[in-house]
């Protein structure tokens, strides 16, 4: 088993971001300001900010797969930093626009990114959010390198090196929290008149350095029962949201073995089998301690009954100390069953203390199917509390 698989980072620059700042224009969105920059009358700040960020990735360069856009929208900056990148086939005009940013981001996301990094300001954040924000058909984990004049959105590192440090931490296996952050922008014309009109444009899933402050005693040790209660409340809220959207009869939830999942079941008022797989329909018990064949049949029957609206969730936890997410203690979850469920419908749960005890080692996927192990390797969003999720890497055996 390799120490860590390759981390795929998508990288895109808005070359015109921030060009109006040095000249005191209080923004860069106006066409006349962008034309002035394109003609060489204003310095292109984004290129330098991108270089600072990319230099911060040098310590992890051998663990990164960088995918970027040609020329001024990414590849030129990556080459200047001495890093290697895969450059997608994408037409970059001499003067780029919001549509180019949007199209470039969508093209990058086809590479199945672990993280998208974009260089720009609030206008760029709006463009990115419009195609990969939380409400879009293809939400993408993303973070910005600040290069704009107006920086009201919460999707950026505090400076380019800070953004690089977040990426380095993710690649190193450090616990990384994920938060939905607002994308906001202001009316530039009003801003030039001294009037601040900020408008909300959506939210994005953004990584940040994990904080270990919730439910903590002196010495930094989590109070486990309180954390487990928070995890149970998060699972309950997720299920209730699905019930509201689809109806309880459409939602089949599978609880894998383990004391953590058993605690959640008990808090939901459900019977539980410590070492077995239990299944619920809505919040009513459907079957307990099922084997693989029974589980496959329950999923198939649910899909036949509910059709396209059928929802199947899998709540599971890792084995403490060993880090096996699949293949140890939950062999009922065969590879074909996991494929029926889908990676995106896995809800891994764990305390931060359990993840921290792995000391950066990845969670292990040992499904018995090497192709599936490889396909599912990568970052998982692990529920570690109420509205608290940590990105953690899993690796196929």
From TrEMBL:
InterPro entries: AcoX-like (IPR039065), NADK (IPR002504), Put_ATP-NAD_kin (IPR011386). GO terms for biological process: NADP+ biosynthetic process. One of its GO terms (molecular function) is NAD+ kinase activity. It holds the Pfam family NAD_kinase. It comes from the Bacteria. Keywords: Kinase, Transferase. Signal peptide: none annotated. PANTHER family: ACETOIN CATABOLISM PROTEIN X (PTHR40697), ATP-NAD KINASE-RELATED (PTHR40697:SF2). This is ATP-NAD/AcoX kinase.
